[in-house]
Every structure is written in structure tokens, then in C-alpha cells.
Records
---
Amino acid sequence: MSSSIQHPPRSYRRRVSTYWWLGRWPYLKFILRELSSISVTWFVVQTLLQISALSRGPTQYMEFEAWLRRPIVLSLNAVSFFFIVFHAVTWFNLAPKAMAIRVGGKRVPSLLIAAPNYLAWLVASVAVAWIVLRG
Amino acid sequence: MAEAITLEVTRYHPERDEEPSLQSDEVPLRKEWVVLDALNYVKDKVDGTLSFRWSCRMGICGSCGMMVNGAPKLTCATFLSDYAPGPVRIAPLDNFPVIRDLVVDISDFLIKLSRAKPWLIRKREKPLSEGEYLQTADELDTYKQFSMCINCMLCYAACPVYGLDPLFSGPAAIALAQRYNLDSRDEGSNQRLDILSHSDGIWGCTFVGECTEVCPKNVDPAGAIQQYKLTATKEWMKSFLMPWGGGE
């Protein structure tokens, strides 16, 4: 007696591991870029708390400043700053892929698309540094 | 055998095995050999039951895509000596059901590809007597990169979105749709818009970008998808601001 053969044959589908993003650096880099949104949220919340403290008077603002100087908050802000820079750099480097600008029938080189982003970042950072540090 | 290298090849027999296993074979390590040559050596000299797809041996047919040490590669364009001293682990393409050994079921990709309508669509075909549809070199240049796709599916194997959500249209199908959208002879971009601008289409892409990195023909599917996101957003804005019909 011949054995019955399934048609189409049974196939094997591998399950994607929950930790698929640990397997290769590009995947980990992608996940870190996505996670950097938490750092963005953290800085937004911190700015809102700062504005709130400012509106409540000098004493509350001094307390807020003291809180900012706590080692745990300083460490958190240092890590968050790293993630913000990581996000900006990886995102600016990806920008040329999304923007296929053609001038005179030729595609504008990637460097010319990425460079204005970095320039705008630099100008904004210098402007903010000037406002914060001049007094 | 002067010098040898070990291949660890995934074996799976659908009527016998519950899950794939590894088979180790020694093959000669020759400078001019690609991974596909080593697989053909195993099939010819060691174990004739090993199944894998291949055809042209020159990076055109797109048949011999496999995972080589965890990365999607065309085995005809991947030198064995780059993996010395070995072992070299060869597995079927990730994210596809395995039919047997290194052969995957590509039906899902073919369905998605045909949905993207990767052919020239004309509102009205002109008669042959009027001649061909002419195109300048610059017009050709706008889509040429995307037209280099050989449907090898390495981009699907590299895409974690497709792995996690098999409904996602995937990189190559979208890149090929964009190839025809950008073609000056095509008039079918509106027909592709609904399919591409769907949650399973371009918006499913989270821009991991590995599809572009693994593409053996430098097609840049990730770029095609992000560029189409801009196009779809512009079309949506147009339909929102001019609901009486700003488009065609």
C-alpha cells in the first residue's frame, strides 16, 4: 500500500524570535533608533515640568534646579542626550533615501541632501547655546 | 583534497521531518568557488537528495538566494573563501515557508508582486502603426535603478516587518510598482495607489533599511518605499484639498 502524500506538501514555517533584533547589528541599530523616541518624550516632559516650575515662582524653580542636579537625573539626561544625537544622526543619514530630488535630469547626490540637515542642526544648536550661555 | 571547508546545510524532508536539521559535509575549498559550487559538489558527489534552486550562475535569474551564515545572499555571487576557515552555514531564505531542504515557497511573493501591477498600464493603447513609446535617456534614468530587480527575494528575507507581518507587501513588490510609476510611458499610478498606500503597503514599512543593504543589484527598495510615502502623502493632500478631483 502506498503512503498518502499531501499535496501541496507540508511546509515548515520558522517562527520569528521575540529577540530577532539582537541577532544583527543593523536590526539592533533600528530598534535603538525607535527606542530613542522615549528620550524625546523624556526631554519634552522635563521641559514642561521646567515651565510649570517657572510659573509657580522662584522657590519652586530652585527646587526644580536642585532636582535636575541629582545624580540619577543627570545620568538619565546624559543617556537621553546620547539617544537624541543617535536618532538625529541616523535619521539625517536616511533622509537622502526618502528624497529623490532631480535637478537638470540628474539626481542630487546624497551628501547634498544630508548636509543641509546637519547645517540646520548646527545653526540651531549654536543659537540655543548663545541664548543659554551669554548671561 | 588539498584544503577543505565544512558546510552546514539545512535539511528538511516534509514527509519525514517535524522540523529542519543540520547536515555537515566537507567540500574542497577552492579560490574560484562560490557557495553554489559547493552545494553542487555536495549534490553531485556526497548526497544527491539535497534540494536547492539555481539556474543561471551569474546573478541574473534570482533563483539561488539563501541564508549564508545568517545573511541573505545570492549563492552564485558569494565566494566560499570569504568564509574560510568555516564552517559555512547555509539555510533557506528567512521569512518564507520551507518546502524542502533549501527550497522555499515563493507563492506569497508572486501574489504580492502581481497585485502591485508591475507592467506598463496605458489608458489607451496606441496602434502599432503609430510606433513605439519614446523615452529620453533622462526619463529612463529616473526608474532604471528600480528596474534592476531580479525578484531574488533577499530583501524579503532581510525584512523583519515581513517576518513579523506576512501581510506586508514587502520591499521588491513596492520597488517594482514604483519602477512603473516613475516610467514616463506608464499611466497606471492611480491604479497602484490604493494597493501601495494601504496599511499593508508602504505604511507597513518602518524603514529598517536592510532590504537595500542586502540587494545584490543595488535596487534600493527602502528608498523606493520612502519616496512613495511622499508621493502618497501628496496625493492624499490633493484629494483632501481638492475633493472635486485635483488628480487625473
---
Amino acid sequence: MANSGRAQLERLLAYLISLLAILVTLFPIVWLLTISFKRQRDAFAMPPKFIFEPIWDHYLSLLDRPGFVSAFLNTVYVTALGVTIAIAIAIFASYSIHRFKFRGKKLFGVWLLLAYMLPEFLFVIPMFVLYQRIGWYDTHIGLALVYQVHSLPFAVWLIRSFFKEVPAELDDAARIDGCSHLGTLRNVYIPLAAPGIAATAILTAIWIWNELTIALSLSFSEAQTITVAVASFRGYTSIAWGPMSAASIVAIAPMLIFAVFAQKYIVKGLTLGSLKG
Amino acid sequence: MTHNARSQRRRPAWLAPALLILPAFAVVFSIAAYSAISLFQLSTVDLTFGEPFRLAEGVGLENYQWLLTNEHSTFGATLRVTIHYLLGTLIPELLIGFAIALLLNRKMRGNSLFTAVLIIPVVLMPSMVGLIGRLYFSYDGLINFFFETFTGIRHNWYGKDLALWAVILVDIWEWTPFFILILLAGLQTLPVEPFEAARVDGASRWQSFAHLTLPMMLPLILTTLILRFMDVLRLFDVIFVMFSGGPGTTTTTLPLYVYRTTLVQRDVGRGSAASVMLIIIIVALTVILIKMRERIKFEA
Amino acid sequence: MNVRFTLVLLIVALVFSSFTAIAQDPIEEWAAGIKEAYGGTEITVAVASHPSIEAFKTMIPRFEELTGITVVLDEMEEGQLGQRMLLEVSAESASYDAMMTAIEWSPLVASSGYATPLEPWIESDITPDWFNYEDILQAYRDMFLWEDGMHYGIPFAGETVFMFYRQDLFEEHGIAVPTTYDEVMEAAAYFSENVDGVHGISYRARLGWEFTYMWSIFLAPFGGMMVDPATGDVALDSPGTVASLEYIRDLWQHGPVGVESFSFPEAWDAFMLGRAAIMIEASAAAPEVENPDKSLVAGMTGYSPLPAGPSGAYSGVWGWSYAMMDDSMNKEATWAFIAYLTSEGLQADYLANGGIVSRSSALGDPDLQAANPYYEATLATLEQAAALGELGLSVVLPTPKWSQVSEIMGIEGARAFIGEITVEEAIASMQAQVSEVLAE
């Protein structure tokens, strides 16, 4: 048929373009990986050295570096805390928005959206003055709570769209059986929307993990996160490109692994949220 | 029926929903409202960051006046740069992303691999992306290496003419995959029947694109644009690591302007005033975009 | 014969070991006294990542062992340390016993009372004999002198700016090492135009404080100044200042491509990777330039004091010190810590581990000079910095508002540098804004 030639050409083009997309996306990261293994003078040689002698020094120096390991652990802790709080609260809030009609519902939605939109650095100064006064500066819980301003609306938005997919009959059936709201939530919505909730948790975790501005301003040593630690490689005498790239790779490695395994959920979460809005 | 039984309970109907959303509301509202109010307050004082806060003196709307009208103020330039950045990133990302998504909307092998790789930029730490950008766009960096290999010329990405483009290109690299993935997923969930019907009716590919695909995808496109739009106005790390807002004022977007004014020049009053204006712009534009989307959903 | 020989050897060995035993005594003796009085105290010190801190970290374990004082180091990036300092000053709190303080911050910590004057401590009994305060270069000591006549920091890493140049390239092309800025411009032009892959001169011009840092060196040689010492007025619009800004802007064409966005890593890399023939940059770059792991021009670089402008040759000093917090509850132990690490007695250890030099005994030592080709240039440049001080000028204005001033100068100056506005407009803008800031 006349079409198959063209269809085949398109098919070929499609594969080529995806290959190109993959290469372009991966290349900078792979290159950064090589920098983390190169001596500084090899790292910036022109023309670029594709063959070189690898050294482990940069990665090893990370262990020596004060606070890098603890920054890593802090980030894990703050992220876990932030995600747990966000999901827990969002589940209730989403259920409420989904299930009930009440006055101010639209306003609440708008308010959440506005809060989500606010650039982080805007609340940094007021929050840091406040935190100083109440002693929450440089605490894990302090950070986790501020992150809610961005994470909560996002989580509510997403989880609500997943709840919408739960068939109404199941909800009614549960109510007929005499389930309270909490019961319905526990027995019907959460199990059915579990993949979606997982997707939301993952996306929230990624955002918190990578967040820099708030972490930079509201934490110092106790709760210092890894984004701040990476930024700190800009030392006095020079940017330690080697250790900094090693640190960056270590910092994103968990997220990368996470993302690669959870990519289905992530895309599902993002699209579903967008489609149903 | 059960509803009757329920309404016979003495608890008012709004109690359950209220209790359920209370924590969310409380946390978000308190922090966001507190911050917004503080910012408004701070924007009306003259205070240097580093001075004890109790020394702030009130100056009314002077800070706003200075930002908008003073000849030494670079706020206008900042707004221009921000708009250029917005347009320079969102439009290409949408067009390229959509085009590629359309092309890849077919049965293909290696879908998982593709998604796995393209999701990577989404999870990258912004400061790391900035670091990559700084390395690559230097005169002797990789980008020029490729340019020189293919076109024989090298460019000064660090200079005033191209710095903003360097930053924009980094953003495009980072976020086009996002558009591709979401739009592709959206395309794949479109119902098949309308297209088959159209084909049976003899519609050309262009016609079915223009009259079916586009309208059906419009809500998703708009939502994705809104998502990115909100993110762009927040972007700080990449530009900061790459150029700190320079050279000159050529890459100083609003977030950078607020940072430099508040934390480097330590002028809390002016920085807060700039922040307030940023909030107003964000709110206004988002409300417009949302209203647009609602109207389209209605019609669709 | 053998027996005699062995006996002599034994005696020599004994004498030797007794010498070393005696040589160790002062430090251990002092430390024993400290241990008795203050052993068991814990002190917290805030520091920024820096080669000198790396050196200190190798020395601290011995200090802790000898004195029984525990040292908790809170290390962070320079910018963060600055913010931390601002935070503490503004919240009027003190979480540390000592803090590493930059010259730019000294006026603020002194005037706010966050740091405590150190004279009483220097003169106290806790100070060991081998501390030798006067051995620290005066130019560095004076960086932390405040208008009340007291010093608020003990410097340990002094820094100046001098000229780096490629001896091999200059010799090869038969060009004399420049001694005036006009000659620098000529030499830079020559290299940019005639030698492939090499630009004339590398420096940093990134907007903000980095631009101001670089520009401040060129002010006095062209007769410019920030504040007139005679009148106290802001004098950015003086003809000398304008001339210095124009000079830097003209130098742009002979710099590496993209110098307008260069921060110090890029500036140093350009020179270290052989892409520039001259570099006018911080002395802290010298150890990097001589490090073969990072630099391709190690061993090929000459160091010279700064060339002269129409008004003379001047350089500047910057640096880091330890300041002691006024609110500290452990001042005695903290002072013991500071004195120990920055003393002359421990200097050899400090330098051997990469510490940045700041004592005249080290800079003037012939062996060290031979090992470090830039020591002599450092000494000469320090004299140039002293000359600047004699004019009543300094590269950093001694005001708590310095960061605002340097930001304003650094933004307007950078805009003129790339041609976004004219030099006249930039100067007028700076003059107006800085006057406003300083008048408050």
C-alpha cells in the first residue's frame, strides 16, 4: 500500500528521534559522572578527553568532608517526614473535597493553588524570623512544615484526582454497610487509590529532596540537607569541581534509582492529575 | 434510606468535612498567610538585613516607588528579562515536546527505557543542573566543542548577548522531556473511536489533528503550561549558579532580583516590595490561565 | 675505634634527643598548664571551608590531646558563614565561642559587640611565649583593627593581589615583564593578537562583590577612591575612579572570552590551563597554580608585585581571622585554642599542611622562599598595600555597610563593563546610591 512506505519512514524517524532524545538527555549527566572521576586538569581539557585515567579521590573525599554524610541522612529524614505529613493530611483533605459540598470549598481550592504557586524564597524571610523566635530554626520538623506549603496543595490535587476514579458504587456500598467516613476512607478509597497515592508520595519526595532555597535559609548544621551540602563545595580557593560533581552524583543517585524504578507511577501521577484537573 | 438516617444525627453536616480539611488548611494557611502578611509589612519599612529587627522604621510605599520610578532601579530590566525567559522556554518546550510526542505516539519498543531516561531531568537537583550548565557553556566547554565541530564557530555564552540564551537552553534541556512524557501519555489515553470515525469519513491526517487531537488535548496542554509557568517564576538555582544574574543585568529574573536585593544588598524593604509585586503578578496571571482553562473545558 | 665511634654516636644521639625534648617542652609545658586550668571544656567554632582550615584540622587533634579541651568545628561554605554571622548579629544571639571572620565582616562584628576586643587576651597569661603576635604581618593585623583602637580578630590567612605571568611565554617572545598598567595593556594586546590559543590577561569580572573586588585594586593606581579620607565624602565620581573603570573595560578585549561572567574559578582555570599569559588575581591562587594536578603551568609562572598606574603602585590586603564571641562562656579555653593554632611555634606544621602564610618570619625565610616562588612577590605586594594604607585608603571600606556598597559598585560597574550602560551613567548611579546608603 502507498502508506506503508511512509509509515515505515515515520517509524524509523520515531526511533531515531527517541534515540536522539535519550542521548541528549543523558549526555550531560554522563559527562558530569566522568568529571567526578577525573583529575581537575583533565576535566577541562580542550578538546575534551574521552579517555582518561580515573581516580576515586573525589568520592573518598566526600566521606572526609564534615557533614556530608550527615547532610545525606538529614535529607532522608526531612524528606520522609515531609512526605508522611503531606500524604497523611492530604488524604483527609482530598476525601473531604471529593465527598462533600460545602461553602468555601471553591475558595479553599483557590487558596491551596495560590499557596502552591508562591515562590519559596518569598516565605524564607518571614519564616526565618519566626523560626528564630520560636526556636524551630535548623530543625527537621521546621523544614518539613514549611515544605507543606508547596507539597500539601500538590498532594491534595493529585490524590483527589485519584479518588475521583473510585467508582461511586463502592462508596455507596460501604456507606450502606454502615461505614463511617473514616471507615470508607480506610476500606475503599485508600486501597483503590494506592498506586496513585504512591505516585504522589514519590513526586512529593522528589521535590523535597531537591529543594534548595528553603533548606539554605532555614537550616544550618543540625538539619542541613544535601542540596545545601552540594552547594557548599564552592570553596574559598576554587570550585572543587571534582568533589562537587562527585557529591552531586551521590546526591541525585537515590532519586535517579527511585525514578527509574518508579517511572511508570510518576508519569501516571503527573498525567492523571493534569487530565482530570 | 441511609441518608435520612444520617441526617437524623445531631452533628451538623459540615463538621466532618471541616475536621478533615482542617489540618491542611491550618498548616498551609498559617504559613502562607503569615508569610504574605509579613512580606507586606516588611515591604513598608526600611531595614537592613543584619540589623536587629526591632530597628526597622516604617516608610510607607516608598520602596515601591523607588523600584518602579527611580532612575537607578533595575526593576524594569528585571521584568523584561523574566518575560523573555518565560516565553523563550515555554514556547519551544511546548512545541518541541508536542511534536515529539505526536511522532512517538505509536506502538514502539523500548517504551520503558525511554520513559525511564526522560524522567531523569525532572528529578535532578537544580543546583547540579546549574553546575552542568556553567561547565558546558564556557567558551572552552562542550557546547562550543559541538558548535565548532559542526559550524566552525564558537560562541561567547558568558557574554551579555548569549547568557540569557544559555540559561534558556539549559531549561529547555531540562524540561522538554517533561512535556514529551506528559503529552505522550495524554495522547495515548485519547479515545480511539473519533479517530477511526474520521478516517472512515476520509479526513486527512491534518484535519483529524486540527479538529480532534488538538481540541481534546487542549486542557492537558494548558494544565501542563500552568504547572511549568508556576515553576518558571520560581526558578533561582540554575541561573544563580551559572551567572548570578549577570553579566550586567542580562539574566536577572525576578527571583534573582529579590535575592540580590534582600540578601546581598541587604535591603529587606525593597526586596520585600519586589516580592509582593511578584506575588501579585503570579496571582493575576494564574487566575487568567485558570479561567481560560475552565472555559475551554466547558466548551470541550 | 669502633667502640669510640659508637660512643660518639651515642652521645650525639643523646644530645640530639635532649634537644628535641627541650624543643618540645615549651608547647607541652604550656599545654599542661592549660589542661589543668581549663581541661574538659568544650568549645564550638564556626569556620568556612578554606585551605587554612584544612591545615588546622590536622593540628586540632594534638591540641585536644595536650590541653584536654574539646573542639567542635562547624564547617560551612563561605557565603553561608556570612549569613550565619548576619543572623547571629541581627538576632543578638551567640551560638559559638569563636568564628572565622573575613575582613569585610569585621566592622560589623566589632561595632555590634558580637565579637570581643582581643587586646586583653593577647596580653594575658594564657598567651604562650611562642605565640608572637607582632610576627603576624602588620598589614594583616590591621585589617581587624576597629575605630576604638582594638583588634577584633587574630589573622591567620592573609591575602593580597599580585601579578602572575608566564615566564616561558614572555621569554619566548622577548617581552619585558610589565611594570606599568600601560605596559600590561600592550603586553596583553600582543599575546591576544599574536599567539594562538592564548589571551592576554585573565581576571574575574562577574557582577557583584567579585567585580568590586577586582576593581578595587585598580582604583588607587589611577588616582581613584571610594571615599575621600580627607572629607569623608563618597568620591566615586572622581576622575581617577572613572579612569580606573575605563581601564578595566578596555582590558576586556584582551581577556579570555566570557571574562564578563568569570568568577575566580574560571579566572584561575584560564591561566592554569595555559590560556592566558598574565593574571591579576588573589595570592590564594598561587598554591593552585603551582599544583601539577590542577595546573598545566606549574613551574612556568613568574610572580611580580602589581604594576604602577599613573598615580603609583598599590595593592590591597584581605583575609580571615579568628574572632572571639563576646557572649562566649569559655573565653579562656577559646583563647588558648586561637593562640595555639595561629602561633609562631606551630607555624611549621600549619604551612606544611597547606595553611596560607601570614607571618613575616615565614615570608622572609630563605628556604621557604625557595620552595614557594610567590613569597617574595607577596612581601613586595604587601609593601604596596601598606602604601595604600598610608594614603588613608583601603580596598574594603571599614563600615558595617560594606556589603551593600560593594554590591552597588559591583552591579553598576559590571553593567558598564559589558556596555549595558556608559561608564558615566554607572559612576553617577553608584555615586548617588552609595552616598544614600552611607548617609543613613
